[in-house]
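Reader question, answered in our methods column.
A reader sent in the components of a multi-part assembly and asked whether the whole thing could be modeled at once rather than chain by chain. We filled in our standard form and ran it. Here is what they sent:
COMPLEX SIZE: three components
ENTRIES:
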Amino acid sequence: MPVLCLPRRIAHLDMDAFFASVELLSYPELRDLPVVVGGAKIAPPEKLPDSRYVFARLKDYSGRGVVTTSTYEARKLGVFSGMGLMRSAQLAPEAILLPARFDAYRNISRRFKHAVAQIASTIEDRGIDEIYIDLTELAEATLPLAQRLKASVHAATGLTCSIGIAPNKLLAKIGSDLQKPDGITVLLRENVAERIWPLHVKKINGVGAKTAAHLEKLGIHSIGELAGAPVEMLTQNFGPRIGAWLSCAANGIDDSPVVTWRAPKSLSREITFERDLHVRHDQAELSAQLAALCARLAEDLEKKGYAGHTIGVKLRFADFHLATREITWPQAMFAVGDLLRAVRQCLKHKLFVDADQQRIRLLGVRCGSLVTREQANETAPKPEPQQGKLPF
DNA sequence: TCTGGGGTCCTAGGACCC
DNA sequence: TCTGGGGTCCTAGGACCC
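And here is the structure of the entire assembly that came back:
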């Protein structure tokens, strides 16, 4: 018996310029100005006796931070997420610079997700400011439903969002970006050629800078051109998996389900230093930073109730090249002391660093192969303390 | 253009076992 | 002793996302 399979109805909901919009709730006087939210280490605005604020400007900044979010006014000046703040200051010196307040964003994030959950309960969390929602089982017509979701999010947070609704996650995600901010875009199968194919390949979630550049070299710029490319040619260039996936994506095909919960795979902590640290001269500082990172990681593991078999270290050197080393242990670990001993083991036995030459820009620790604390058996061998000097 | 911090998934080679 | 082929786990690096 053939199974009749109705098309799914999937929404992608994306908060508009989320961090910056949350900040505008606190500082409404900044509305319509170019505003940039940057690293957490920036000083907050100073409050005057008359309760007005003194705001920092981008041109006053010096350091290694990047733009976390910018308002649409700042984007008009060429300032986008991920860009170095020093570079942004050249483009928009007068733009207002605010520190990121992640606790505030997480709080509002919970509120908008809760508001959506009152209307539709099948939600996939895609980070702090976006979600997928499976609306297939709901009876309500698409457009009124989308309007109701937006109204509910606005009532809960005071913020606007953009929604794309389509037969799958891939198209819903592209759709939510088509009429930003505060937009609703409904896409059907039959709209793919007209509305999706003219777009650049980078609009596909999963096609980044490298893949796009590779495609450009093959003469493929638009999603339509990708859809017309022979699958064999794509698999030759990108491998069997990615080649086939690219071809499907360009044709608007995506069967991936809306996943309501995933167990975490790894937890990590890292820090980029204000200045690059010398392996020998700054040994004490590096050692203290390593211990602090392990302490924070142990806190996270404790809070979430996990332990991990794989403990690793991450180093970015002054020349920006990256090295990672990890060891999988028979014993799952969660205590600071164990993490620290395991990380030092990686550093001493697996990574060659020239203590006289190399400078370190970033230091990170990671815990993978997670199990719950109840599953962590306590009898297997743990890492031994590392004695001797350097590195760290 | 001197480039954060937290994640996920994929690939490819080597070890090891049957 | 020299030769297989498959499966799984581990590791390092890289692409990508928010």
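What stands out: Residues 18, 81, 126-130, 205-211, 310, 312, 322-328, 350 of chain A lie near DNA strand C (CB under 10 Å from a C1'). The radius of gyration of chain A is 24 Å.
Send us your own complexes using the same form.
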